[in-house]
């Protein structure tokens, strides 16, 4: 079932103040996979996503989205940042934040209209947040904020989704809701890349995994490479998780 | 002079009309652009820029040798921008944090400006007088042409804000995401910073280097208290800014010796204090009231559920019990017992209490609700 490659990364190296954070990463992500990026704290997981999206300038390397540079393919890519990266006391509503997902396709100056509002309401409904559409965002719980971010990315209607720890600090209900949406995205042949922390749930949620610790340790289907050997190589200690297949 | 006489004077007296209009427009543009500074957490940038403008004014005077407010503004603009770039440079190129960079540039430029001012004062030049009025501002020196300049700049920045509203809002809320959508954040950043610098420079003559940042921050901080909508916040900040300008001018004009700039800033400060206390959703007063009410309700619920547990063990739920047995229970106070009686949940006879039917129903509903929430 080898598909075409959605994201191809070559020789990517990123450094903050001379200390390498990512070292010579080569990675090819096939279309239609649900991929987890796992690794210890400081492994460069968020940095990898941010440098793919050109938020952080790498010192070397290239990123191609469906064979073309990312800069020409922005509309194919959606991003869900860590929810802690913004100030939730900002004066705006849940619907307004989701509408921001339509700004990219609108381009400069043009304002969102009925079509964009309708799409945003649909996205809110998908994440189960429709009844909160007029809620001030500071009044939302952590899980609700995460779902709002997810809805904002859904409304972009992209082919590739990058998500930075979408399960961080959410309760079991929200986690289920998010994973259902991820599976729906996969059904629709979208490619989803998720920075993930909970190793126990990797086999259950994802079909593809990348082990990262400054260098790429391994990448491939979960059933082939999610084993103690790779976990030990990545986390440095003798790792034993009972992997339920 | 009463209020009506004063208002008549504003419309008939040329100088007073110019100053009132000038301070009102200045307040409006500062409030509008200040909202963006506050939401970008760049409140201190305004302070640094206004202090950094001082050496520019002094150097402009040294070059041309006479007083000319438009040349001074140009000098202030240049040195304000230089200060801003240096702040950015320090943040980007060193490990220093932004507060350090701001503090450093603010005091260095201000110190240099003060040095130049004292040097100018020592020079035998009849035209030097009044240069130090840029420290605290002198609204009386406003000319009609200055007011026109302010009005034009305000109109331009309003158009820019409306045009790039969507992009600026996005930038304020989530800069990284703005970038992934393909917007040039450097352009947006320079756009909004430039307008903030221009607003500050325009206010130097009126409010002065030292107090200028308050004009930028106070109306925005006050406006944030009243609304959760960005557009309304910006509009409110503009209104608050204009109001502080008009009120400040009125107070200083009717008390001859009061300097206008500080009075305007104080008027804005009063607006902030009022908003912090009396805003319905975020104000201290209503928050305290809500807090007390919640605590009170909780205490009532605790007492009621305790009584429910006692009453439930009897066949007849209205069977009287001694008030004394409640004393072991910490939530119990005479006041809450009284309130329960007022609600007709319990009846008190002497030192005995008994539950009523409605009290029992209510308590059991409360109990079910709690159980349900725990199960969810």
Q: Topology of this structure?
A:
The complex is a heterodimer of chains A (245) and B (376).
Chain A: E1 5-16, E2 19-30, E3 34-38, H1 45-52, E4 60-65, E5 68-69, E6 77-80, H2 94-99, H3 103-106, H4 114-126, H5 142-154, E7 160-164, H6 172-187, E8 191-195, H7 202-205, E9 208-213, E10 215-221, H8 222-225, H9 228-235
Parallel strand pairs in A: 3-8, 3-9, 6-7, 7-8
Antiparallel strand pairs in A: 1-2, 1-4, 4-5, 9-10
Helix pairs in contact in A: 4-5
Chain B: H1 3-12, H2 14-39, H3 43-52, H4 54-64, H5 69-93, H6 98-122, H7 133-136, H8 144-163, H9 165-173, H10 175-180, H11 185-207, H12 212-226, H13 230-254, H14 260-278, H15 284-311, E1 321-322, H16 334-342, E2 346-349, E3 352-355, H17 357-375
Antiparallel strand pairs in B: 1-3, 2-3
Helix pairs in contact in B: 1-2, 2-8, 2-11, 2-12, 2-13, 3-5, 3-6, 3-12, 4-5, 4-6, 5-6, 5-11, 8-11, 11-12, 12-13, 12-14, 13-14, 15-16, 15-17
Written account of the structure:
- The complex is a heterodimer of chains A (245) and B (376).
- Chain A contains nine helices and ten strands.
- In chain A, strand 4 and strand 5 form a beta hairpin.
- The longest helix of chain A is centred in the last third of the chain and has 16 residues.
- The radius of gyration of chain A is 18 Å and the shape is globular.
- Chain B is elongated, with a radius of gyration of 30 Å.
- Chain B has two domains: 280 residues, ABC transporter involved in vitamin B12 uptake, BtuC; 90 residues, Arc Repressor Mutant, subunit A.
- In chain B, 40% of the residues are buried.
- Chains A and B meet through strand 6 and helix 3 of A and helix 9 and helix 10 of B.
């Amino acid at each position: 079932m080898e598909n075409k490659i959605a994201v191809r990364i070559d020789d990517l190296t990123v450094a903050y103040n001379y200390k390498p954070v990512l070292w010579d990463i080569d990675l090819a992500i096939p279309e239609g996979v649900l991929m987890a990026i796992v690794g210890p704290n400081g492994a460069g997981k968020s940095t990898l996503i941010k440098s793919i999206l050109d938020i952080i300038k790498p010192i070397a390397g290239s990123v191609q989205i469906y064979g073309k540079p990312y800069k020409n393919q922005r509309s194919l890519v959606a991003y869900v940042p860590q929810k802690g990266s913004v100030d939730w006391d900002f004066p705006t509503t849940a619907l307004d934040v989701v509408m921001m997902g339509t700004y990219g396709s609108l381009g400069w100056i043009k304002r969102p209209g009925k079509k964009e509002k309708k799409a945003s309401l649909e996205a809110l409904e998908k994440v189960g947040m429709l009844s909160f559409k007029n809620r001030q965002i500071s009044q939302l719980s952590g899980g609700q904020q995460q779902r709002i971010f997810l809805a904002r990315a859904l409304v972009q209607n992209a082919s590739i989704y990058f998500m930075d720890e979408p399960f961080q600090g959410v309760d079991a209900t929200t986690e289920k809701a998010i994973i259902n949406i991820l599976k729906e995205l996969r059904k629709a042949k979208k490619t989803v890349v998720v920075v993930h922390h909970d190793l126990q749930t990797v086999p259950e949620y994802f079909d593809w995994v990348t082990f990262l610790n400054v260098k790429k340790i391994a990448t491939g289907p979960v059933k082939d490479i999610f084993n103690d050997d790779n976990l030990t190589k990545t986390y440095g200690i003798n790792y034993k998780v009972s992997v339920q297949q | 002079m009463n209020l009506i006489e004063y208002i008549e004077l504003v419309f008939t007296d040329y100088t007073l009309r110019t100053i009132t209009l000038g301070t009102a427009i200045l307040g409006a543009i500062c409030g509008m652009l200040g909202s963006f500074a506050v939401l970008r957490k760049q409140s201190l940038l305004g302070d640094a820029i206004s202090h950094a403008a001082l050496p520019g004014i002094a150097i402009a005077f040294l070059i041309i040798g006479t007083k000319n407010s438009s040349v001074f503004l140009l000098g202030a603009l240049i040195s304000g921008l230089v200060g801003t770039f240096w702040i950015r440079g320090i943040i980007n190129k060193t490990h220093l944090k932004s507060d350090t960079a701001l503090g450093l540039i603010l005091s260095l430029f201000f110190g240099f400006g003060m040095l130049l001012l004292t040097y100018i004062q020592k020079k035998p030049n009849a035209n030097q007088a009044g240069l130090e009025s840029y420290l605290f501002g002198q609204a009386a020196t406003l000319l009609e042409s200055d007011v026109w300049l302010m009005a034009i700049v305000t109109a331009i920045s309003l158009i820019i804000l409306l045009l790039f509203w969507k992009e600026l809002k996005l930038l304020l809320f989530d800069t990284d995401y703005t970038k992934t959508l393909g917007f040039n954040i450097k352009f947006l950043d320079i756009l909004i910073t430039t307008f903030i610098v221009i607003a500050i420079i325009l206010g130097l003559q009126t409010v002065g280097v030292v107090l200028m940042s308050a004009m930028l921050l106070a109306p925005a901080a006050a406006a944030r208290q009243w609304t959760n909508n960005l557009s309304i916040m910006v509009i409110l900040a503009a209104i608050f800014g204009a109001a502080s300008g008009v009120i400040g001018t009125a107070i200083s004009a009717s008390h001859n010796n009061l300097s206008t700039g500080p009075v305007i800033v104080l008027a804005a400060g009063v607006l902030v204090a009022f908003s912090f206390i009396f805003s319905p959703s975020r104000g201290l007063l209503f928050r305290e009231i809500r807090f007390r009410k919640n605590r009170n309700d909780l205490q009532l619920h605790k007492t009621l559920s305790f009584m429910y547990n006692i009453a439930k063990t009897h066949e007849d739920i209205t069977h009287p019990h001694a008030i004394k047995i409640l004393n072991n229970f910490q939530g119990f106070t005479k006041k809450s017992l009284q309130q329960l009686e007022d609600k007709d949940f319990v009846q008190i006879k002497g030192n005995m209490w008994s539950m009523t039917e409605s009290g029992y129903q209510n308590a059991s509903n409360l109990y079910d609700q709690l159980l349900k929430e725990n199960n969810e």
